[in-house]
UniProtKB/TrEMBL annotation:
Domain of life (superkingdom): Archaea
InterPro entries: UCP022079
Name the UniProt record assigns to this protein: DUF2150 family protein
Database matches in Pfam families: DUF2150
Length: 193
């Protein structure tokens, strides 16, 4: 095993994103605002993808990978103090999407990919579980779909077009970020500098 990178993601990096959002006029209907929020989400997903890739490439072991994922999760999913309620809600939405990113990565590292099935099938089953108010199963199913993306499967995002907006669509949005991160892990970093 070679030495892992110094840091996959830092609290400072997360705070920089939050400061940018604090300083800007955020209107989710505005393309630039929406892109800023998506870049924030994708930036975290890229860090997660890099940890999973380092684990797959045997650059880091399972314990290190899970520890790194925990560190980022605790930073990113911690309570965010925003005076602006609308911005706080938008960050909460990003955190909700990222919850599934972490869960999928942790499942993948600890147990490998879920049984082979189309990612969309996992999401449709999760939607049924959400309708039945079984949110734990719903999250588990979307995360299982996420493990398939880490294994190289693709998510056809159009599956969400026919779904009612809810937690499953938020979590599936996180899977879309995983997919982007796995296909082009440098995307946001160049944009962000």
């Amino acid at each position: 095993m070679s030495a892992p990178p110094e840091e996959f993601y830092s609290e400072e990096r997360w705070q920089n994103w939050l400061d940018r959002i604090r300083d800007e006029d955020i209107d989710p209907e505005n393309e630039d605002s929406a892109r800023l929020l998506l870049n924030l989400q994708d930036d975290v997903a890229i860090a997660v993808a890099k940890i999973v890739t380092a684990y797959d490439d045997e650059d880091i072991d399972e314990e290190t990978a899970l520890s790194e994922l925990t560190d980022i999760r605790e930073t990113v999913l911690g309570e965010v103090d925003f005076e602006d309620e609308e911005k706080a809600m938008l960050i909460d939405g990003v955190q909700t999407s990222l919850l599934c990113v972490f869960y999928a990565a942790e499942e993948y590292v600890a147990h490998g990919p879920a049984e082979e099935a189309p990612v969309e099938e996992y999401i449709r089953e999760a939607e049924k579980a959400e309708s039945a108010e079984d949110l734990d199963s719903a999250l588990g199913l979307v995360a299982a779909g996420g493990t398939r993306i880490f294994a190289g499967d693709e998510l056809d995002i159009s599956v969400m077009e026919e779904m009612e907006y809810g937690l499953v669509t938020e979590w599936a949005n996180g899977l879309d970020s995983i997919q982007s991160a796995m296909s082009d892990p440098e995307l946001v970093e160049e944009d962000d500098e």
